[in-house]
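Please check this one:

***
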Amino acid sequence: MGSLIQRVVNLCKRRGLVFQTAELYGGGLRGCYDYGPYGALLKRNLAAQWWRDMVTRRGDVLPLDTALLTPRSVLETSGHVNNFTDPLVDCKLTKERFRADRAPPVEVHNGALVIRASSNTEAAEWVKAIQERLAPGAKVTKGAKASSPSVVLSVVRQTATSLELEPAAPAAEPVVVPYAGYAAPSSNSPFLTPSRQFNLMFSTTLGPLDPLEDIVDTVLRNASASRDQILAAARERVAKSTVFLRPETAQGAFAQYHNVLQTHSPKLPFGLAQVTRIFVSLSLIPGSDRQVVPQRDHGRALYLSDGRV
């Protein structure tokens, strides 16, 4: 699939449809594309045709064009601030970053947990890292096949929350490794960080003051507090000035629904339509075709009847 996507991207570039954003500077901005001459015309024609079909030729749809910046209060009410997230995990061994909700369970066959490496040199480095940092005292060996470099661990017992590894010393207790139900997709490594929520919205600040000053002041005042306490205090300080680039087209329509009713008195059901831009950050996962997509241009029509879509 990756090669097919790359061929499509290369074809679009040769035909002048889309170009990698700022490709001249360090290879460009990953996941972002600019419309070329033909791409810009195609996009404009599609939007114009959509507008004619959805607005001009209908009597029950009103046009709308709302701001790109959305107040925090709107997105807190819609649930985006707390729930519009992806769960991300980093592998302590391989440094791979992936989504926890798409990761496979750890593969253990006949008690052997095989961690796949890209080279024998890498496998040797991983053996040392496991012995010294990640699972001291565990029995760790390199895979026997030179053509398939790997690291092999012996699993004595597996539970829903842990993996018990065979110790290097015969009389020692098994080495317990936390297990969250999944492993790194590329390597099958179980040495992972806790899952953390990556918010998919782009935020910025609105106001004359630099938010970094507030953050620094908060850190200095709470120097004796824990990391989580300092982080919570800093977020509280900058929350009042934080706004978001719109993650969906619906928020503006819902926020202006009452004003449209008051100024135009439309009969239900009626629609609100706009062709606009949204901004969604789709997980910074290297090597994935679903990386950062900070803009998607499309039109959407919302049909509102008795307050329901």
Notes: The longest strand covers residues 293-304. Residues 88-195 form one domain. The chain has nine helices and 17 strands. The longest helix spans residues 37-56.
